[in-house]
Amino acid sequence: MSDDSLIRLRDALRAFAEERDWAQFHNPKNLAMALTGEVGELVEHFQWLSAEQSAALDPATRREVALEMADVLLYLVRMADTLGIDLAEVAGAKLAINAERYPVERARGTSKKYDRL
Amino acid sequence: MSDDSLIRLRDALRAFAEERDWAQFHNPKNLAMALTGEVGELVEHFQWLSAEQSAALDPATRREVALEMADVLLYLVRMADTLGIDLAEVAGAKLAINAERYPVERARGTSKKYDRL
Amino acid sequence: MSDDSLIRLRDALRAFAEERDWAQFHNPKNLAMALTGEVGELVEHFQWLSAEQSAALDPATRREVALEMADVLLYLVRMADTLGIDLAEVAGAKLAINAERYPVERARGTSKKYDRL
Amino acid sequence: MSDDSLIRLRDALRAFAEERDWAQFHNPKNLAMALTGEVGELVEHFQWLSAEQSAALDPATRREVALEMADVLLYLVRMADTLGIDLAEVAGAKLAINAERYPVERARGTSKKYDRL
To answer: Would you kindly state where each structural domain of chain A is located, as residue ranges?
Structure first.
C-alpha cells in the first residue's frame, strides 16, 4: 500500500468501482458532472454566510463541509485516474506556473486577477 | 518536506499565499467560489464531447484538462487548510461511509442513486 | 402586473424577499453561490445518464428537473435584480453577439468551440 | 413574435441551433454542462469581492457580469426547450411551493435554511 494519500485514494476508488461494476458509468464526462454536483453541495453550506462566518463554522457544520470536500476530492481523484492523469505531478507543475505568473513583488496584496493561489 | 503529496501541496500553498499577502482573500467562502470557477473551466472541456470522446482526449486537450484539474485540487487543498480540515483523513472516512451505503451485492451495476464512488 | 414572465418573476421575488426580510442575504455574491448550488442539484440528475437517456426522462424525473431549473431561473432573476440588470435585454444583446461570432456558414455542424448557442 | 421574453428567447435559440446544425450537440446532458461552465465564469467575477463590493460593481465589470448572466439564461432556456419544459410556468409553480415552505411569519430574517427565495 502506497504511502501517498492520493495514490492510496486512487487505488481504493479503483477497487470500489470494480467491485460494484461502476466503471461503465465512470467516464471523464460523467465524473466531471458528478464533481459539479458535489461542489454545488459544498457551496450551499457557505452561500448565506459572511466571509467571517465561513471561517468560524460550528463543529457539526464543519464536519458536514469536510465530508462534502471529501466527495469533491474522491471524484477528482477518480476522474484523474480514468484520464491517466497524475494529480500530484500536475498540481506541482501548476503551482510552478502560477509562481511565474504571479511574481511575489507584483502580486502582493492585490486582487486584480481571478487566480489567487 | 513531507512525503505526502496533499501535505506538500498544503504547505506550498500556504507559503504561496503568505508571500503574496493573499491570506486576506482566502476565506472558505471565497475559496469555495474559486473552486466553482475552476470546476466550470474543467467542465467546459467536456460539454460537447460524447462519453467515448471524453475518454480519448488528444494529448494537448488532455494536458489542458490536467491543468484545470490541478487548479481544482489546489483550491480544494487551500480551502481545507483554512478550515483546519485534513483532506486525506476525511476522504478515507467518506470512502468507508460509502462502502457501507453501497454494499457490493446490492450496488452492482445499477445507477439508481446519485453517488457513484 | 406585467405581461412579461421575467418581469413578473422579478417583481414576485422582490416582494418575497421583502416580506421575509431576506434582502440582507441577497447580495450578488451570495446569490451567485446560491445559483451554483441549484445548478449542482440540476446536474446531479444527469450525471450518470447517457445523452440519449437525458433526452427521454420519465415524467417524475422530468418534473424534478423542471423544478430545479425553476430554482436556477429564480436565483438568476433575483441576482439580476440586485445588480439592476435587465435580463431580457442583455440576453437579446448576447444572442446578437453570438450570431456575429458564429456565422452560419462557418459554424455549421462543427463543435470546435465552447459556446454553442 | 411573442410578447414574452422567455418565449422569444426560446424561439430565437431554436432557430439559431437549427441554422448551425447544432441540435445534434444540444441534448439536456450537454446543455446542463454548458450551463455549469457559464455559471463558473459568472462566479469568477465575484470570488474575491466582499458582499459589499459585489453590490457596487464598476460599469465595465457590471456589463461583463450581465453578459455572463445572459449566457446562463440562454443555456437554461435552450435546455428547457429540449426537455419540453415551460420555464415560466414551472418557475411560477416553484415560487408557490417556496411560499408555502417559508411562511412569512416563521421565515422573517432567519438564514436557517439553504433556500432563500
So the answer is: 5-85
Rounded CA-CA distance B58/A104 in Å is: 35
How many angstroms away from the CA of C114 is the closest CA of chain B? 7
Nearest to B39 among A22, A39, A111 (CB): A39
DSSP track, B83-113: HT--HHHHHHHHHHHHHHHS-HHHHTT---S
C-alpha cell, D69: 448572466
Topology (CATH) of A5-85: Helix Hairpins (1.10.287)
Say yes or no for a CB contact (<8 Å) between D44 and A111: no
Q: Which of residues 48-77 of D touch B (CB under 8 A)?
A: 48
- Chain B residue numbers touching D37 (CB-CB < 8 A): 40-41, 43-44, 47
- Output the pTM of the full model: 0.94
The CATH number of domain C5-107 is 1.10.287.1080 = yes
Q: Quickly count: other Cβ atoms within 10 Å of residue B18's Cβ.
A: 11
Question: ipTM score here?
Answer: 0.93
pLDDT tens, position by position, D14-66: 999 999 999 999 999 999 999 999 999 999 999 999 999 999 999 999 999 99
